[in-house]
Amino acid sequence: MESDIGLVGLAVMGQNLVLNMSDQGYSVAVYNRSPKVTEEFLAGAAAGREIHGSGTLEGFIRLLARPRRIILLIKAGEPVDEMIGRLKGLLEPGDLIIDGGNSFYEDTSRRAKELADAGLLFIGSGISGGEEGARHGPSLMPGGDRGAWPLVREIFTSIAAKTASGESCCSWIGPEGSGHFVKMVHNGIEYGDMQIIAETYQLMRDAFGMDHAEMAAAFAEWNRGELESYLVEITARILAAKDADGFPLVERILDAAGQKGTGKWASEAALDAGVPLTLISEAVFARSLSALVEERLEASELLEGPSPGGAPAGTAAGGGAAAGTRKKAQAGELADLRDALLAAKIVSYAQGFSLMREVGTARDWDLDLGAIAQTWRGGCIIRSAFLDRIKAAFDAESDLPSLLIAPYFSELLARCQGGLRRIAAAAAGAGVPAPALYSALAYYDGYRSARLPANLIQAQRDFFGAHTYERVDAPRGKAFHTDWTGSGGKATSNPYNA
Asked: How far apart are CA 112 and CA 495, in angstroms?
């Protein structure tokens, strides 16, 4: 019997996705570069199922029904190009390759064109949800050759996560590398979300004197309201976890965050598009700063700052008062923390959706931002209750310039911005770094400002480089120049924006 679909790459995500497809009634062929991994999987978790494997790529291809459908879940970059190169010589026109890894979207666009020239179909699909999502229902973001979508639509929508009302968390994103682009933005929002949660935790610990049971209880309570989300949920569980000796496990984890590049790609894409992805970029830089462990430890002994109230006894945080002298958080401070986190979370999502809107328009991808919000409603890492509200906002106004001005979110921000201001001030006063929370407030204030100080910047640029400026009392696009020194003359630089 020929298999409905094949998968290359039997690491944890690959194995769980195969089992998910099997649960939905599909027969699956598998291949891994290490035949031993294939053998162990077939003899273990896949035993008794319609899952078949081969130790060679040629044998794997023979297991597949035509047109062949193959998912790659392997390391992004050169390994994907190498595998595609091997498959091209074994496949026939009309066969389909699906890259389900975290590939850079420009690479996906290139591969789509190259495979189209060879008569093969190609999809680059973002997959979010980790191993649990892969096993029980991920969020899927496919894009590429539209003619390929009918070949996998039924499979993808059946294995994807479902919302509470039963909708599949999978929809066709658009052409070229749009699927991987949307997954990249998802990961950028994920960076921002994780950073503002981490800053909230540090404020709880170092500024407001909360113990881990209190912190866990606060996050658990918040998860029952407007902040309901996967990341808030697991934060409560993490903060409640104990090491073997009963000490809070989170405090035994080295404070150096890793990253695999998708957050950086999102920031680079935003710089190219001229979109202020400030909070997400601060989150990327915060991970880079965290990696400077040895430098920070040395600097903590040399650089002065206000006492943050002390880290929990037994940690390596240093630089604070003894645990017994820390003041306890008051109800108003907890309410402010909640509001600050919620406001910053809105800003993080708003920036991500603005990036998708700008790049999607520039590339003529026709991205359905409401459908993307629906796709993220279940299965993915950034799933949260207010994604329904985001979908509703874009369904009501498809060309909405920013989530910040959608009625639901503008009203929520009006309610929460006071808490964000007080928490930003408290963080600065306590010497607790909160770059993403600060950035959220600065972005909100900048976006709502009818007039920013960029007029002075334009005057400076014209003064030293004759770059010209526009005037408030003249039509947009008309350039002016002032001979500021009296000796510069009328010659100007060619005005342009990079």
From this structure: 37
190 is catalytic: yes
Q: Is 471 left (phi over 0), alpha (psi -120 to 50) or beta?
A: beta
Cα gap 73→79, rounded to integer Å: 10
Amino acid at 352: G
Report the distance separating Cα 382 and Cα 197, nearest Å: 12
Tens of pLDDT, residue by residue over 448-460, are 999 999 999 999 9
Quick one: which of 373, 371, 328, 313 has its CA closest to 349? Answer: 373
Pairing, β 69-72 against β 139-144: unpaired
DSSP label at 98? E
Residue 319's pLDDT is 37
Q: Which of 167, 190, 199, 226 is catalytic?
A: 190
The per-residue pLDDT for 235 is 97
pLDDT of residue 259: 76
Q: Are 382 and 129 in contact (CB under 8 A)?
A: no
> Which of 121, 58, 115, 56 lies closest to 94 in space, CA to CA?
121
Which residues are registered as beta bridge partners of 128? 139
> What is d(CA 461, CA 155) in angstroms, rounded to the nearest whole number?
56
Could you say which of 176, 183, 233, 251 is catalytic?
A: 183
Residues with Cβ < 8 Å from 416, sequence gap 6 or more? 339, 340, 342, 343, 346
- The parts of the chain modelled with pLDDT lower than 70 are 307-329, 491, 493, 495-498
- HEC per residue, 6-61: EEECCCHHHHHHHHHHHHCCCCEEEECCCHHHHHHHHHCCCCCCCEEECCCHHHHH
Beta carbons within 10 angstroms of residue 486's beta carbon: 6
